[in-house]
Design brief:
This protein is globular. The protein has 4 helices and 12 strands; from the N terminus they run ββββββαββαββαβαβ. The strands form 2 sheets. Strands 4-3-7-1-2-6-5 form a 7-stranded antiparallel β-sheet. About 15% of the residues lie in helices and about 35% in strands. The protein folds into 2 domains: about 5-105, Beta Barrel (Elongation Factor Tu (Ef-tu), domain 3), CATH 2.40.30; about 115-225, 3-Layer(aba) Sandwich (Rossmann fold).
C-alpha cells in the first residue's frame, strides 16, 4: 500500500452491472496516488467504510478500472445481503458521498507467457481488469463461477478461453474441478491466479503448489472472503 493515509474520494455515480454486482464510479481527491504500476496483477484498494453503528470498517475491493484522463476509478462490489458493511455501502451510496481509499495494494508477480485465472463472483472485477491489461500475445484461460449465468458478458471476450460456471445458492462449488480440467498442458511459464472463498482458494492453492508444483511466485491464490467470517477475521493470503 503506497498511500499511508486514506485519500478522500467522492462517489460520482453508481450503476448495477448485474443484479448482484454494483459499480461505484469514484472521483475527486488526488486519485493518481492510487494508480497501480503497469502489469500489476489484481491490484486492490482498501475502502474505509462505516458500519451500522458508525464505526470505521476497512474492506478490500479490486481496482476495476482507472481513467486517468477523467480522474475516475471504478470499483465493482458483489452484493450479498444488506447486513454487511460493503454490500450496504454499495447499495446506499449516492453521488456526493465521501469514501476514504488507500492503495494500491499489489502483490508482485513475474510476467508470464501463460495465465490461468480463476475465481468466484468477487474475483470477477479483478479477472475482467486482467483480461483487459494483459498483453495480447500471452495465453489466458479463465474459469469463473458465479450465481449469475450472464457473468460472461462482463468479461472482454477477445479470443480468450473462458469457462463460466453458474453456481446457484446452496449448490456445492465446482470451481476446483473446473480449474483442474482447464489447466494448460504447458506449465513451464504458467501463472495461476485465483480469488475465491477461503476453503475453495485453499484447495486451488494446494493443487497449484503440490499437484502442478508451481513455484510460489507463480501461484497467486487469495482468500477473497471466508464463509462465516467478516473481513479482518481471516488472512487473505493463507
Ligand atoms: C485482494 C482482494 C480483492 C477483492 N476484490 C473484490 C471486488 O472487486 N469485489 C468484491 O465484491 N469483493 C472483493 N473482494 C472480497 C471482499 O473484500 C469480501 O467479500 C468482503 O468480505 C466484503 O465485505 P462485506 O462488508 O460485504 O462483508 P463482511 O463484513 O466482510 O462479511 C460479513 C459476512 O458476509 C460473508 N461474505 C463476505 N463476502 C461475501 C460474498 N462476496 N458472498 C457471500 N458472502 C460473503 C462473510 O462470510 C461474513 O459471514 C476482494 C478481496 C480481496 C482480499
Amino acid at each position: 500500500m503506497s498511500a499511508a493515509r486514506p485519500i478522500t474520494a467522492t462517489v460520482l455515480a453508481t450503476c448495477n452491472l448485474a443484479p448482484d454486482l454494483r459499480r461505484l464510479v469514484l472521483g475527486g481527491g488526488d486519485l493518481r496516488a492510487l494508480l497501480p504500476p503497469p502489469g500489476a496483477l489484481g491490484p486492490y484498494l482498501k475502502l474505509h467504510l462505516a458500519d451500522a453503528e458508525g464505526c470505521e470498517r476497512i474492506r478490500t475491493y479490486s481496482l476495476r478500472h482507472f481513467d486517468l484522463q477523467r480522474g475516475e476509478l471504478h470499483v465493482d462490489i458483489a452484493l450479498h445481503g444488506e447486513d454487511s458493511v460493503g454490500s450496504r455501502f454499495a447499495l446506499q451510496a449516492r453521488p456526493g458521498d465521501k469514501v476514504g481509499l488507500r492503495g494500491p495494494g499489489v502483490i508482485p508477480a513475474p510476467p508470464c507467457r501463460s495465465y490461468l485465472l480463476a475465481g468466484d463472483h468477487t474475483a470477477l472485477p479483478a479477472i475482467a481488469r486482467t483480461l483487459e491489461t494483459l498483453p495480447g500475445d500471452v495465453a489466458v484461460t479463465v474459469v469463473l463461477e458465479t450465481p449469475n449465468p450472464d457473468a460472461r458478458c462482463l468479461l472482454a471476450y477477445t479470443g480468450r478461453d473462458i469457462c463460466c460456471l453458474q453456481r446457484r445458492p446452496g449448490e456445492p462449488s465446482r470451481l476446483m474441478d473446473a480449474v483442474s480440467e482447464a489447466t494448460p498442458q504447458k506449465r513451464e511459464d504458467l501463472m495461476v491466479w485465483a480469488g475465491a472463498e477461503a476453503g475453495i482458494a485453499r484447495a486451488i492453492r494446494k493443487y497449484a503448489r503440490t499437484t502442478l508444483r508451481l513455484p510460489p511466485a507463480r501461484c497467486q491464490i487469495l482468500n477473497y472472503w471466508k464463509a462465516g467470517r467478516a473481513e479482518g477475521e481471516f488472512d487473505c493470503m493463507a
